[in-house]
Design a protein that fits this description.
The complex is a heterodimer of chains A (about 110) and B (about 110). With about 110 residues, chain A is mainly β. Helices cover about 0% and strands about 55% of the residues of chain A. Classes of the chains: A mainly beta (about 110), B mainly beta (about 110).
Chain lengths: ~110, ~110
Amino acid sequence: DTEVTQTPKHLVMGMTNKKSLKCEQHMGHRAMYWYKQKAKKPPELMFVYSYEKLSINESVPSRFSPECPNSSLLNLHLHALQPEDSALYLCASSQGADSRYEQYFGPGTRLTVT
Amino acid sequence: GENVGLHLPTLSVQEGDNSIINCAYSNSASDYFIWYKQESGKGPQFIIDIRSNMDKRQGQRVTVLLNKTVKHLSLQIAATQPGDSAVYFCAGSLDRGATNKLIFGTGTLLAVQP
């Protein structure tokens, strides 16, 4: 199984809502990532978890809150988002968090904030 | 700075021709480079990678060339097919302590004409 799955595929939420994005992998990978991708732009790193600990936070606003409950799961909790947060949110995983390992990406969650 | 960019935003080729997608990077500290393919509605898919101790690496129908002197990376696709139509991103790794961060280039849209 070389798949990273993400749910939901699409999400529409208001600025006062609280929602969560979910990501799962069963490849035994110990590093997991959240990226944000705006239309026609490259992915931008948000967070990196290594061995279930947050190792990189790219100065992401606190309205985005990551969580890694175990080595297979990664969540992104959303609260009080702004319309400019509308984007494709990509999850990725790799065997380890250093540069020896390829990152596998999920299909993404298309988020629209109204 | 941490910047990986592409020369051509759009490349149109005839089916059966060879394609060359170029990428420039600015950070000499990057020691690992990856090419990703992203089809519409999907997450990035790994194509091929190369480490800085190499100048060429071949896969099935794809070749990556690395010129560290001029900080240039290219992806060559032989006998381009309609299924190759996608956005192609180069990415360079940057180690942040024990954690690797990928910096993506701006992307090139490859359009294959039948």
